[in-house]
Backbone:
């Protein structure tokens, strides 16, 4: 059953939950908790504050906060004021943050006291959360929040590393995002008001924005938000308190399983774990289920489709290593990447998707939008095959994307940083397999002078420009970068020359 009743404006969802369970805790972090009644009142006051600061309908507002209750409050306040929420990782490097603020055209931002001065210096109006993870005393709402009714307006601009150099802002609507809750998390994973979710996911990423932010509200569940992924914190919480559901990416489950085995710890009261973001190896899936005695369901999601395209069903037949069946309401095809002809079951092709969650386009990038969307079909750039029962397996990628621990890295963006280092003549960045992280970026560098080249200094330079997860895992010196006649880097050739596999 698709729960279309959950596809409603944020103000309405908040009022519904405040009425049904006002005194129940909605979100909590290590510092604060907020009940549904307080969430309704506080987001109304914050929305009024945004409106008083001049935020008009359709204005982008930056969300530059650590994972916290405040993050969720700020997000809902932006939507209630009619703005577009623009999540920016708190760990973004200064150039990455500036690029997103400028590309989106944000004039107002939510942030912490630590970043307030830097953003004010860039001309932004700032609402900042103090060390307690709370906003300065909120005045009672001066005017009511706009609480827009339109579910099809752009509500989120989620930056994603695509195949080309710079990150692109993916325009998503509230209808598309809530569709995934109505068609997947609630009816398939059984997310409900009885659940207490433990979320270690970064909230700025579409997966968590969909499930850990919107899904909790839509279902009226309760959630503990970890500031960042920490195996010891998760095992401690699972041992002490009652949690029923945990989303994660494969790398998190890998580390969790290792640590739990070493400590002899089990899953406490968890009923289900959910994996998305990168291939979940069959051995990890089985190993996790054997040790913890609960199901770990893999689903395949993409920012450009408001996340979930396929999902595995609990207590139902599954194919280990496959990412499940198409989510109801989506049309999914596997086609020849050149001719678009449909491929027979069992034959690999490019996965293309159409449905309510497909993005509206890339923010201010019409050429990129046209290349990715054809007649409503989003070209995922992922290779897949279907078995005779319709289970999909992701088999590879057409797009040059590195997925390190569930986070996407565009090789071109890392290459730009590496090539900007003065003693580099030429460079290419390649994803290589890694046991725990899935893949890691390795920089192949042609130095200007091999005798004096300092790889450590190159990595320091990269850390100044890139988020930590994008910094090359290793640097390997080569005499030339192999390219095709049309100038494309032949990454497979470089991968073959790797000295020390990661
Ligand atoms: P993002 O937009 O950051 O969520 O990244 C989406 C990409 O992650 C997809 O296009 C896939 O390449 C990969 N991905 C996500 N979920 C899965 C999964 N369950 N299995 C394999 N690859 C996945």
Residues:
């Amino acid at each position: 059953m698709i729960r279309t009743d959950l596809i409603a404006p944020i103000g309405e969802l908040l009022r519904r939950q405040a009425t049904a369970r006002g005194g129940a805790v909605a979100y909590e972090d290590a510092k604060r908790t907020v009940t549904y009644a307080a969430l309704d009142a506080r987001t109304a006051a914050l929305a009024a504050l945004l409106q008083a600061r001049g935020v008009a309908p359709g204005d982008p507002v930056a969300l530059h906060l650590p994972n916290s209750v405040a993050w969720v409050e700020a997000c809902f306040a932006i939507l209630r004021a009619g703005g577009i929420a623009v999540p920016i990782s708190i760990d973004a490097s200064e150039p990455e943050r500036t690029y997103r603020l400028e590309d989106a055209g944000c004039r107002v931002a939510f942030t912490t006291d630590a970043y307030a001065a830097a953003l004010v210096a860039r001309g932004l109006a700032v609402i900042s959360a103090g060390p307690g993870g709370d906003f300065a005393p909120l005045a009672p709402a001066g005017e009511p929040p706009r609480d827009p009714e339109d579910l099809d307006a752009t509500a989120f601009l989620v930056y994603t590393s695509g195949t080309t150099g710079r990150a692109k802002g993916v325009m998503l609507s509230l209808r598309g995002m809530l569709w995934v809750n109505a068609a997947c998390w609630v009816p398939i994973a059984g997310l409900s008001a009885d659940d207490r979710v433990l979320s270690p996911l970064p909230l700025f990423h579409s997966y968590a924005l969909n499930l850990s932010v919107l899904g909790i509200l839509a279902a009226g569940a309760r959630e503990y938000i970890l500031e960042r992924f920490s195996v010891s914190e998760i095992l401690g919480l699972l041992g002490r308190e009652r949690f029923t559901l945990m989303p994660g990416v494969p790398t998190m489950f890998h580390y969790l399983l290792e640590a739990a085995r070493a400590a002899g710890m089990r899953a406490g009261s968890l009923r289900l774990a959910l994996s998305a973001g990168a291939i979940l190896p069959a051995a990890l899936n089985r190993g996790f289920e054997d040790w913890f005695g609960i199901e770990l369901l893999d689903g395949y999601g993409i920012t450009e489709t408001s996340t979930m395209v396929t999902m595995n069903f609990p207590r139902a037949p599954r194919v280990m290593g496959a990412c499940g069946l198409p989510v109801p309401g989506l049309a999914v095809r596997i086609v020849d990447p050149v001719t678009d002809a449909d491929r027979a079951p069992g034959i690999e092709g490019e996965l293309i998707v159409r449905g309510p969650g497909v993005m509206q386009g890339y923010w201010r990038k019409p050429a990129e939008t046209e290349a990715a969307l054809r007649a409503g079909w989003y070209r995922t750039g992922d290779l897949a095959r279907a078995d005779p029962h319709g289970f999909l397996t992701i088999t590879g990628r057409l797009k040059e994307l590195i997925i390190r621990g569930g986070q996407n890295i565009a090789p071109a963006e890392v290459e730009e940083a590496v090539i900007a280092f003065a003693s580099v003549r030429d460079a290419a960045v390649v994803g290589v397999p890694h046991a725990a992280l899935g893949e890691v970026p390795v920089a192949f560098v042609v130095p200007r002078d091999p005798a004096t080249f300092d790889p450590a200094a190159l990595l320091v330079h990269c850390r100044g420009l890139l988020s930590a997860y994008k910094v090359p895992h290793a640097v390997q010196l080569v005499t030339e970068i192999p390219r095709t006649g049309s100038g494309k880097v032949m990454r497979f050739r470089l991968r073959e020359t790797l000295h020390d596999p990661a």
Notes: The pocket of adenosine monophosphate is lined by residues 160, 206-207, 276-280, 298-303, 323, 380, 382, 394, 397, 403, 408 (CB under 6 Å). The two ends are 45 Å apart (CA to CA). The mean pLDDT is 94. The longest helix spans residues 36-52.
